[in-house]
Amino acid sequence: LAGTVPEEPRCTVERADASLTYSLFLQRFAFSRPVILGGVTDNSAFRALCTREKLLAAFGPFPVRLSTANTYSYRKVDVPFQEYVEHLLKPQDPARLGSDTLYFFGDNNFTEWGPLFQHYVPPPFRIPGTSPAYSFGIAGSGSGVPFHWHGPGFSEVIFGRKRWFLYPPDQTPHFHPNETTLAWLQHTYPTLPPAQRPLECTLRPGEVLYFPDRWWHATLNLDTSVFISTFLG
């Protein structure tokens, strides 16, 4: 299928489990490097509400705002959620530009989606002086967002698998802002010397990635995926 990519078994992002304390999180990761957290929350109840059938029953007729899957996400398109799921949620075409690829992530109407988010258990850690905001998304295999940066945050996979690529703020990756992550992986990634490769890992359901402020990151959904981020602004 167009957009289907094999999983890379190598993971170069550090992992931590539920034994990680808040003080150690602040000391070792919050301001310096990403980490994958396992077993820090239980979102089985939230996951049960995020099946295709449950989401269509709850939100089918409501409009959702889609963004183009390029670095600057200039274009926004509003469509009924049911239309997105039934007609636009498909594997990424490797030849399609990011500006022509529509992606459901981030622009959630909290009046409509708020009751669902009340069931989500966020990661237990915070950055002092910030407040959390949720961003919920669903996307097809091979889709993703190319390299960009913003403030710190967490991202959890609810269904599917999601591959992440990360660079520190002082190491700008080589990419074209209108090229999809899939095209970058196929054309640019193989040419990178080992010292220029990003930190990377594939997240599975229940795993949470933390990324610090201003870290470059790109994502690639290996399956049709449901995911939610907690941005710390």
From TrEMBL:
One of its GO terms (cellular component) is nucleus. This is JMJD8 protein. PROSITE patterns: JMJC. Residues 99-233 form the JmjC domain. It comes from Molothrus ater (Brown-headed cowbird). It comes from the Eukaryota. InterPro entries: Cupin_8 (IPR041667), JmjC_dom (IPR003347), JMJD6_ArgDemeth/LysHydrox (IPR050910). PANTHER family: ARGININE DEMETHYLASE AND LYSYL-HYDROXYLASE JMJD, JMJC DOMAIN-CONTAINING PROTEIN 8.
